[in-house]
Write a structure and sequence with these properties.
Layout lengths: L1 E16 H9 L8 E3 L9 E16 L4 H4 L1 E15 L12 E9 L2 H11 L3 E6 L8 E6 L5 E7 L7 E2 L7 H7 L3 E5 L2 E5 L1 E3 L5 E4 L2 E5 L10 E5 L11 E10 L2 E2 L2
Parallel strand pairs: 5-6
Antiparallel strand pairs: 1-3, 1-16, 2-4, 3-4, 4-5, 6-7, 7-8, 8-14, 9-13, 10-11, 11-17, 12-16, 13-16, 14-15
């Protein structure tokens, strides 16, 4: 039981300085001091991967609702920090499982924003998000009230077709990240929610993209411009488009 739908997204992964990523964890108002980065082998020592997902959730709804009466399609941009764990874990839990922490999510729909706060404890805020259907090749995120540019993604139209994820070896490292549960907070408690994808129906393709960070909306994330090569054998952290059905389960307490 949980939140279900189809996810279509464009993702860029950056290797950022580890101290900067640690500042993103520390900004969590209730449990920031209890979160830590785990060792990982995707980026060089002293750095940590951070994903920027510019996506659309299609026909999304709670699993017990009627798809015809309550489904929503909306834009959601997420900053994604994988390989995170809690310092509070008991010695009985053994080696911690890597989780994903979401310092910020921007949405253009009220219902999933409020639902994300209440049920999962995610850091969601409403924003103005560019309509990718009217302006192909661009995805802009601006503040809701003032319209201040926050970040944007621009890309070249891919010529290669989508491929099943099982046929793209370079996607394996990213697939492992997408299988990590999502951390959230309910009151003073740390929770995690499994976000399961139906990889048998998932498809992916490489993408040439430019990521522009226009404002420091998260501590540790500095403004700048990044050119991103397509995902491939030589660029396992490259940019890509992903389409896959999903189920976001209800949260459970972390050990």
């Amino acid at each position: 039981m949980g939140f279900v739908g189809d996810w279509s997204t464009r993702i860029v992964t950056l290797a950022l300085p580890r101290p900067s990523v640690e500042r993103m964890l520390a900004r969590e108002p209730r449990l920031g001091r209890d979160l830590e980065l785990l060792p990982q082998g995707l980026t060089p020592e002293g750095s940590h991967p951070v994903l920027f997902s510019f996506g659309t959730l299609h026909r999304s709804r709670m699993s017990w609702s009627s798809a015809a009466s309550s489904s929503l399609t909306y834009e959601e941009m997420a900053v994604v920090v994988p390989f995170v764990a809690s310092r509070r874990r008991s010695a009985r839990t053994g080696t911690p499982l890597p989780r994903v922490y979401l310092p910020r999510l921007f949405l253009n729909a009220t219902v999933p924003t409020v639902g994300g706060w209440l049920y999962w404890g995610f850091n969601k805020v409403l924003a103005r998000i560019g309509d990718t259907q009217e302006d192909p090749g661009r995805y802009d995120v601006r503040s809701l009230v003032a319209g201040t540019p926050l970040l944007s993604l621009r890309w070249e139209a891919p010529t290669e077709p989508y491929q099943p994820v099982s046929e793209v070896p370079a996607f394996q490292a990213m697939q492992e990240i997408h299988e990590q549960s999502l951390l959230g907070t309910v009151g003073p408690l740390l929770t995690s929610a499994p976000w399961t994808k139906d990889w048998s129906q998932g498809t992916v393709r490489g993408l040439s993209a430019e990521l522009r960070l226009s404002a420091p909306f998260v501590p540790g994330l500095e403004p700048g411009h990044h050119t991103c090569a397509p995902l491939g054998p030589d660029h396992v952290l490259g940019a890509y488009q992903l389409r896959v059905p999903f189920v976001l389960a209800l949260p459970r307490l972390e050990p």
